[in-house]
Amino acid sequence: MGYWPVNERIILCKFEAKSFNIVIMQVHAPTSDYSDEEIEAFYEDVSKTLKQAKSSDVVIVMGDFNAKVGNTAMSKSIGRYGLGTSNERGERMIQFCEQHDVSVINTHFKQPKRRLYTWTSPGDVTQNQIDYLAINSRFKNAVSKCKTYPGADIGSDHAPVIMKINVKLKIPRRKSTKAAKYDVSQLKNEELQRKS
């Protein structure tokens, strides 16, 4: 349906789909080297961009958040299966997720550590989970799988994070209205035919 490059850190794409349109926002948050003001400006831009999505849309916010949300489910947005402990930038991301009612999906699936870390430092010294897939909580249960694929030949120090989602619709149940019954035997009644 279209795409909107907001700035060098945010792009939004909207796809037409049956029943629900899909809105995907790719982000690249500033690193911890940036000031708190620049981080706040980033999240403000993301919030403004999210307003382009309708409440009925499947909304996926994904990318490099440069934050660690950890493995402690501090809110309904974060699962128990993240990697490590959260940091200050992770707490800001959690606040954003709660504000917009989105769930960080790759913290909701139990995986071995190698399926959790998304970034490896030069020399394989450090491995962190800083890339996330978040979906509006309404569709959280539609996600059946989410994991990282380390070792993918993509020419990056980040590993791809893959999510499988199946959106099923509930069939609306209508109140049954009984059809009116007519006494068709009266059509043969000659007296009634003469009166009409």
Automatic annotation (TrEMBL):
Q: Which InterPro entries does this chain map to?
A: Endo/exonu/phosph_ase_sf (IPR036691), Endo/exonuclease/phosphatase (IPR005135), Swc5/CFDP1/2 (IPR027124)
Q: Give the Endonuclease/exonuclease/phosphatase domain ranges.
A: 23-162
One GO MF term attached to the UniProt entry: catalytic activity
Against SUPFAM superfamilies, the record matches this protein to: DNase I-like
UniProt-recorded name of the protein: Craniofacial development protein 2-like
Origin organism is: Elysia marginata
Origin organism lineage: Eukaryota, Metazoa, Spiralia, Lophotrochozoa, Mollusca
